[in-house]
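Render DNA-binding HxlR family transcriptional regulator in 3D.
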Amino acid sequence: MPLRSDWSTDFCPVRRSLDVLGDPWLLLIVRDVLHGTGRFEQLRDNLGISEAVLSRRLKAMREAGLLDTVDYVRDGRTRQRYVATEAAADLLPLLQQLALWGEKHTRLPAGGAHMGMRHETCGQETTQAETCSACGEPLRPEDMTWVKPWRDAEHRLRAAGS
C-alpha cells in the first residue's frame, strides 16, 4: 500500500516499512483489531471511515500479511472478523510509542485525559513502549490494557490470531 512510490524493493528498511505502513488508516485499523474490534461494521463505525476506503485497506492489509480472518456465526449466518497476525502484533511498540509521543508533544483537547498503558503481568502503568518501565518485562499485546478515561473504557489487547 504505497504512500507515494513503490518502495518495496528498496534497500532501506525504513522505506520498505513505509511502503506497507505509510497509510495512517492502517495503524488505526491495527490498533482497533488489537483492541478486539474486528468486524467490518465495528471498524467502519469506530474509525469513521467510508466502506470503500475500509474495504481497500483491509484487502491490502491481508495481502501484506497484517490481518487474517476467522469465522463467527451471527443470526444463523457465518461471517468473518479480522484478527491481527504476528506481523500486526509486532507493531505494538510502534503504536505505544506513537501514543507516548502524542501524550508528550501534542495538545490534549478540552475534556481529554491521559491514556494509560497498563502491563497486566505486573499491574503497573508503563511509560515505555517495548518493555515495561515498572518490571522490565517485554510488552506483548495480550499482556496490555489501554486505559482511556475520555471513553470511560479499558481495552485489553489481543494476541495475534485471537
